[in-house]
Every structure is written in structure tokens, then in C-alpha cells.
Amino acid sequence: MTKGPGVGTTEESPGGRAAAGTTGLDDARAAPDGRRRGAVVAALMLGMALAALDGTVVSTAVPQIVGDLGGFAVFSWLFSGYLLAATVTLPVYGKLSDTFGRKPVLVAGIVLFLIGSLLCAAAWSMTSLIAFRVVQGLGGGALQGTVQTIAADLYPLEERPRIQARLSTVWATSAVAGPAIGGLLAAYADWRWIFLINLPVGAVALWLVVRHLVEPARAAPAVRPRIDWAGALLVFATGTLLLTALVQGGVAWPWLSAPSLAMFGGSAVLIAVTVAVERRAAEPVIPGWVWRRRTIAAVNLALGALGLLMVAPTVFLPTYAQSVLGLGPIAAGFVLSIMTLSWPVSAALSSRVYTRIGFRRTAIIGISLAGLILAAFPLLPYPAEPWQPALIMLLLGGALGLFQLPLIVGVQSTVGWSERGTTTASVLFCRQVGQTMGAALFGALANAVIAARLGGGDLDSVSHALAGAGPAPAEQLRHAVATAVDRVYMGAAGAAGLALLALILVAPRRFPVITDKPDA
Q: In terms of pLDDT, which residue wins out, 45 or 4?
């Protein structure tokens, strides 16, 4: 592994305990008094809440937004546009934070997100709202990656599970509270307040960051850093084209149609051009070491598979709960939210495991359990009792908390300050690309199963058909949805198997741990 000046490398000890005497720069970042560091953590949690609440709050207000602005045919781009912008900018923001520091990137991200929120509240048509959601996404990409990176900067290795558990709690709370907040604002105020409430929250986060986040001085680089604008534009263009093909394929046009083939072909060409440009760039946005180092490559692959398998519970379980179990939207949301209760608890306790047996072994145990739990879902009786899928989700959250957090903490600990932003961004980028691919692949799988069972139809028409059909057709539809979701969960178990293979075949037995030392 390439090491910069003043950087030492250790490994997890034979007993599994990481030799994590994180000193020097890491200690300098953890050294601020408790009040200042607490204020920064509060800012990080508020910034994470902005990004986490965004999708869940907006989803419940879609009927009101469409009723006011129209554009039902394209409303899905309210989510796709944001996702695309946030995902494709992650590598760019990661590199910028390593080059110029975390604080300016986080401040710029919060400001951009708030500008986008204000513009969304003033939107006059669905087209303008989608465009402004893209602006929000450009800020959201900076929030997601930089918040995770600063969290690793602030705390030494042995304390990082605590801050990561707090950030996981933010996501869990957002998953539960977001739909309720969005529904209340849409029903009793106006859908525009969904975006306006971001302003005071973001303003407080911005004030705390500006006032309390102080990054230690670093030695001036011998050569003035150069921004790889060509690489940044190519990464943005490649990611946008590829994710658009995945998001729209099978929805706006058939998978084997000319538009779909043209977009995938164009994506392949852009990927080749991007690799060629980045190999020649002095300061590439996506450096080659991200994939040459076994630890980072393995974590990227494993968390990409995590994004893939997460589509099963987050996208298809609510449909299953309402269509098959007959639950209302609130009860269906509760079945899903059970997972978000066990996940942060398991993540917080995972440090007691990986300090004894190591990051890799802990993650292997977590993903192995997750695969077995996902494979158990099709074994539920038909019709299942609501507590049965809820129990599955409770166990799945515990397994995934044991899987994800050790990998994030572990991979952040294998690089120094100057590479941590790029590393964190690459991990989050792969996870979101996996989630996008999962939505496309499992959506096609579910549609195919339903079409085979019913002789036509897709998931979008299931709720409407169940509401208007008689008992016999409704029962047939419920069986079709149950079968489709069972197949999706088996596919998710397969994705867990891919993550397991990445850890077994690619990841080193022990993660090398970097100890930063102060610059001279």
C-alpha cells in the first residue's frame, strides 16, 4: 500500500483487535473540547437528517404535488433526478474534500441543498420542480459523503462506532418520521412546506459547522493541487447516462429497445473514455488505487451488493404488506420500520465483536446471517401473520448492522486523512449504484412473475386492481404478489451471497490500519 509522509501502517492483531493507536492527526481531530465536538456532531446529524428525510417526506405528498402541478407521467423523476445528481457527484465531492478540506465542501453542500429547497418550494410546474430537485441532489451528494468522512476524522478508531450508530439512528428516525411529516404537511398545510422546513434545519447546521468545525492546519503541498475537471465531467456524464438507463429501462421504454441499447452502449463508451482520462490525470477524481487496494475494492463490491439486496425490503415489502397481508399504509410502514430499530443497535454493539475477531470476520458473520434471513422469507405461510415478516425485518436489521458498520469503520481506518474522503465517497457511490441496479433488476423480475401468474399486468397496477376487483380476482392477485416478492427476496439472498464472496475472495484476512502522524 502506498503511504504518504508521516503515515504508519499496522494490522489487526492476531487476536483480532485492531492495533488502532490512532494518533497524530486523528487525535488532533478528536482533541477539541467536548462542547465543540458535540456541536459539530449535532451539525453532522442535522445535515444527515436533511438528506435522509428528503425522499421519505416527498413520497407521501406526491398526490398533492401532482394535483397542483400536473405532470403525473413524469413525477417519478422527482426521486430519480435527485438520486442521479446525488450519486454521480459523490466521487467528485470526495476528491474535493481530500484536496481542499472537508469544511468548504460541507458548507457548499448545505448551501446548495438549501438553495434547491427554496427553489422547489417556488416551483411553478412539474418540469421546474424536477429541475430544482436535481439542484437539491447536487447538494445532497456533498452532504452524504462529507458527513461520513468528518465523522471518521473526529473520532479515533475505537470510538467511531458511537458516531456511526448516531448517524444510523438519524436514518432510522427519518424512515419512520418522514412519511408522517410529509403526510401532515400535505394534508394540513401545503406541499411546499415540505421543502421550506429544510431552511431552518439547514441554517442551524450551517451555523454550527461554520462556528465550530475547525480543521487542523496541514503542511502546504509542494505542488499546487490541480482539479481534474475533465475527469469530474466524465464521471458525472457516465454516471448520469448509466443510472438513467437503469432507472428508465423497462419503465419509459422496453429493456431491448433502441433507446435502452443506445444508452447502455453510450455508457460503455464513456466508461472506457473515463478510465483512459483518469489514468493520465495528475489528480484523478477516481484514482486507480480505489480498486487496486484489496480492502477498498472488497468493501466497494460488498456494499454495492448491500445496495442491491436492500431493494427487497425497502421497495417490495410495503407492497407485500398492503396487497397480501391487507394492512393499511401506516401498519405496512411499521412492518418495514422494525428493521430500522434493530440496525443501529446492532451497529453500536458491533465494535465489541470486531475488536475481538476483526472487521472481515464480523462482516462475514453479518452478511451470512442476512442471507439466511432473506432466504427464510419465502418460507412464511400464506397468508402470513403481520408479526412474521416484522420478525424477519427485525432480524435482518440486526444482521446488516453487524455487516455494514464494521466495513465502513474498517475501510476508513485503512487510509489516511488525505485519502479518506475519496474512499468514503467510493463506498457510498457503489452502494447507491447497487441500489439503482437492484430496483431495475428486481422490478423486472417481479413484473415477469406477476405477468406469468396473471397473464399480464405489473406492480404499478396491483393496488388499483386489488381495490376494484372481486374476491376471486383479488385472491389471485395476492397470490401473484406474494410469489413475486418471494422471488425478489431469493434474489436479495443471492446478492448477500455475492457480498460474502467479495469478502472471502477479495478482502485481506486482516484490514491494515493506518496511524496518521502530525505533519512536520
A: 45
